[in-house]
Amino acid sequence: MDLIDEPENAGNTPEFTVSELSGAVKRAIEGEFGHVRVKAEVGRVVKARSGHLYFDLKDDRNVLACTTWKGQVSALSVIPEEGMEVVVHGRMTTFGSQSKYQLNATEVAVAGVGALMAMLDKRKKVLEAEGLFSADRKQALPYLPDVIGVVTSPTGAVIRDILHRLRDRFPRKVLVWPVAVQGKECAPQVARAIEGFNAMTPGGALPRPDLLIVARGGGSIEDLWGFNEEVVARAAAASGIPLISAVGHETDTTLIDYVSDQRAPTPTAAAEMAVPVRLDLMAAVDQMGARASRAVIDDVARKKQRVADLARVLPKPNQLADDARQRFDYWSEKLDGALAKRVTDGRLRLGDAAGLLRPSVLNNRISQAQRDLVQRSERLRVEAIAAAQTRAAKEMSNVVQRLANAAQTQTERSRARLDTLDRMRETLGYRATLQRGYAVVRGDGEVVTTAKSAKKAEALEIEFADGTLSSTHGATGDKPKPKSKPKPPPENQGSLF
Questions:
Q1: How far is Cα 241 from Cα 210, in angstroms, rounded to an integer?
Q2: Among 372, 351, 370, 368, which residue's Cα sits nearest to residue 360?
Q3: Is 32 helix (H, G, I), strand (E, B) or coil?
């Protein structure tokens, strides 16, 4: 067995295992590049089901793989998107299983205002395509809300401006939800505040606001970027409580301004939109009260004048009662005579009725009624018998008529069937065959079907369709004449068979 020769200088070179060499490379890279900042364009972006985020940073010649672990993703202020120009903070490390180096990204920031505006424009197009900017879905602001919810920083000048303006115009109950108004915690806290206000129960221990104000003072686009996040825009669009956005100064525009129900140029203007001026309302109420009082007074005066005009036209009360008093006197005088006449008439009718109730009169009326009853019974009996006889005779006549009709129909059917059978007999009989040019030959009274039988017969009888022809032969001893050549049958003559 041959041994492989080792290089001459192999004795001075140390030997490493693969894991040892990978570990050495890892320590070298992590020691040299413990913390780096890389400015580049984002390439491929993949979020694994495990929650880890993988993306590439690239320039015109090289690509750097980046990894953000699941626990680090929530701390990112900007989620990288393909094509975005960013500045990434992190530390370099290696992945020995694939012999590659990568950047563990712990912070991602947009590089420059142009990149931010491009990303903002892209988000606006997506939300607008979903209809979140549509004017049809925007809610009307309440005229005078009881409770106003404010989402802002509790320590800034914004909340003081809002409270001061509300106190001057129309004091209302205000609930403040403190949030960070810039930085990576801004967007999630603002979104949770909007959702939290909407989750409150109306009429609960802590009253649910009738109106929301999301406010922040002015600043750069980077400072206001939390209000450009998609999570904030979607939370504002889904709010069931009318929402006013007051982020930045009049020239500042953020994504929440497009989805809110009303945009205010400043936080102070948002407070002015939220409530009317109490003094103006009081003046208007006083004015309307004075107008109502004048209207009531004028109406009462007009009605009094109308009553006075009608009173002058009406007659005096004594005049209204004179006619009734006269009619009462007239009927009072006639009442005694009418009562006496009514009593007399009643007595006469009572006497007539008493005369009719005497026993002799009653017996006569009963006897007459009995005779009338007997006569009517006799008439009813005779009429009933006659009616029954008439009905029986009518029914008998109907039965006889039906039987006669049935017999006639049966006879006609039998006659038609007999005619049909007779026609069939004639069609199938031999006489129909004679009509087609054939004849029946009989010898000595028997039908002859062969020449031999015909020669033996004393006399022959031939029956045609129009008559019978008789002939004799054989007894005279004459020789029969030679047979002549039979004529061909006519073309139109059919066959017997």
A1: 6
A2: 368
A3: helix
Q: How big is the chain by its Cα radius of gyration, in Å?
A: 66
H-type helices in 429-482, by residue range? Answer: 430-434, 451-456
Distances (CA, A) of 356 to 348, 349, 360, 478: 13, 11, 9, 138
CB-based contacts of 25, cutoff 8 Å, min separation 6: 94, 96
Flag whether the pTM goes above 0.90. Answer: no
Please give the Cα distance from 14 to 32 (Å, whole number): 23
Q: State the residue for tokens 């590439």.
A: 56
DSSP characters for 382-419? Answer: HHHHHHHHHHHHHHHHHHHHHHHHHHHHHHHHHHHHHH
Q: Is 150 helix (H, G, I), strand (E, B) or coil?
A: strand
If you ran DSSP here, which 8-state letter would residue 222 be given?
T
Structure tokens at 28: 């070298």
Query: What is the residue type of 353?
Result: A
The three-state secondary structure class of 131 is: coil
- pLDDT per residue, tens digit, the chain (497 aa), is 444 455 555 567 788 888 888 888 888 888 888 889 998 888 899 999 999 999 999 887 889 999 999 988 888 878 888 878 888 999 999 888 888 889 999 998 877 666 677 778 888 888 889 998 898 999 999 999 999 999 999 988 899 999 999 999 999 999 999 999 988 889 999 999 999 999 998 877 888 999 999 999 888 777 888 898 889 999 999 999 999 999 988 777 888 999 999 999 999 999 999 999 888 888 888 889 989 999 999 999 999 999 888 887 777 777 777 778 788 888 888 887 888 888 888 888 887 777 666 677 777 878 888 888 888 888 887 788 888 888 888 888 888 888 889 889 999 999 999 988 888 887 777 777 777 778 888 887 788 888 887 888 888 888 887 888 887 654 334 444 444 445 555 555 555 44
